[in-house]
Amino acid sequence: MNNENKDINDDKMLQNKYRGLEIKSKTIPTSLPPNQYQLNYQNTNKIPITNIVKSLMNNLPIFLKESNESRGYENSNTSDKNYKYHITFEKAFNYNILQTAFSKSAKRDRNHNIQFFNLNETLTGNIDEVSLDKLLLFCWYSSSSRNFHNINLQNRNSLINETKKIPSLLKHQLKIDYARNSNQTFFNTKEFSSTISQYLTLNMNSNNYTIADIFYIICINQYIKNDMKINYNNINRMMLVFIQSFGINFSNLIKDYLMKLVGKNILFLRTLNNKIFITIKKGQEKIVYLHSCYMVLEKDNYFDPENIKGVFDLVFEADLIKNTYDVSVIVRFNEKKFDLYDVQNDPKSALFGKGRKVKIDQKYMTKDYVAAGVSAFYVAGMPFLLGLGGSKKKTKRGKNKNYKNKTKKNR
């Protein structure tokens, strides 16, 4: 029996074992009226249960089973194992491109230790092996499985109860991460006003879900403004890229592969850039995640945060219509002397990002903009976004001149 047939049979066995676990919540159609989110989900811990959320819920038993079988899988050659939801960089991408570029660039000392290398490559996701949704599931499971470590896989009722918690966990994560990163998030190149950013920061640890609701409502707004059917499944997929678990685990996929190339343990340290670009226009539904940081090598079983040896930069782009993804990876590494002040080593410089497939306007790289891209008004202390119901009427701000002056000063 080949591996592919074995994988299919194993899945069928698991599905038979956990028959009846499928979530009964009705998948929300993409053409619902815009007020459905407000009516059913706003001010609650609920989110639309679309296909991607159902996949997270229904495949949790498979992931947990694989986790139990593969303790310490990071230290083994998992690429030879037929795990469905434990994936590696080699599975997700054509790693030979990065390996060839590394071999051409790398310089070694007499002991064959890597002293220097530069990388600037764009890799297309291997969707036949690792689909976009499978990648999203892996990244979320990898960080969130700790919430389910006490589950008894033999207890069907326990599994059902735990899987039902996933939507509320997602909304809680979105609330926290959006509060942190709202001013680094751009919807169709626009950002929140400073007023909403301040509201988000002040309410990050509150028990209400207003912050998560704002994320959904802004996305819904873009569909309405562009006369598009609202695709809640794609909004949920954008949310899965946005929350912190994706950035951590996707970066770790690349880091694990770089450690194989370098032959030493690497620590990613001190975030230099972290931005999200969401595009919702006719014919375009994309999300771009940009992250850059310094690299520190392990020496004598210790990571010295002052001993920076390189800089790492990734730009992940997912096309939610085509269901494809790719990543641009830039690495500047110098074991002997890494110059922090060289513009070529600064991820915010135009020179650093030259050659990227994913083009990003330089103004977003060099400044942390607080642009009044989205208007807001308050009703009983609750922020709502204008245009949600299709209304073009704008609400005037009190003391508008003072507000503008304060905003300019803050910039």
Blueprint (SSEs and pairs):
Layout: H1 3-17, H2 35-40, H3 51-58, H4 60-69, H5 89-92, H6 95-105, E1 107-108, E2 114-124, H7 132-144, H8 156-163, H9 166-181, E3 185-187, H10 194-202, H11 210-225, H12 232-242, H13 244-262, E4 266-281, E5 284-299, E6 302-319, E7 324-334, H14 362-366, E8 376-379, E9 382-385, H15 400-410
Parallel strand pairs: 3-4
Antiparallel strand pairs: 1-2, 2-7, 4-5, 5-6, 6-7, 8-9
Helix pairs in contact: 7-13, 9-11
Q: Give the terminus-to-terminus CA distance.
A: 64 Å
How much is the average pLDDT?
A: 76
Shape field: globular
Number of domains: 1
Largest sheet: 7 strands, mixed
Oligomer state equals single chain
Tally the helices: what do you get?
A: 15
Percentage of residues in helical conformation = 25-40%
Radius of gyration computed on alpha carbons: 23 Å
Content-based structural category:
alpha+beta
Extract low-pLDDT stretches.
1-32, 72-80, 367-411
Instruction: Describe the strand arrangement of the main beta sheet, using strand numbers.
Output: 1-2-7-6-5-4-3
Please explain how this structure is put together.
Helix content is 39%, strand content 21%. With 411 residues, it is of the alpha+beta class. It has one domain (3-410). Helix 7 (132-144) packs across helix 13 (244-262) and helix 9 packs across helix 11. The longest helix has 19 residues, at 244-262. The model is unreliable at 1-32, 72-80 and 367-411 (pLDDT under 50).
Features:
single chain, 411 residues, alpha+beta, two-stranded antiparallel sheet, 15 helices, 39% helix, disordered N terminus, disordered C terminus
